[in-house]
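May I ask for an example protein's residues together with how it folds?

___
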Amino acid sequence: MRYNDRINPEQSKKIARNKYAERHIDKFIKWSVETRGKLLYKELEELHDKYNIKCYGKSNIKQL
């Protein structure tokens, strides 16, 4: 019998982690713009490093 009767739990965990990071970055961007009226690129880079997100202009998301 499969773990939790699901086909691929590891893949769903990776997707959940990515979505969690996206939500937190989006929440920070909205907060920063509303309170300070600007978003510092340095702070955005720190969040990308914290959540291990790499943005180089192309999409780095692999097809699942």
In short: The chain has two helices and no strands.
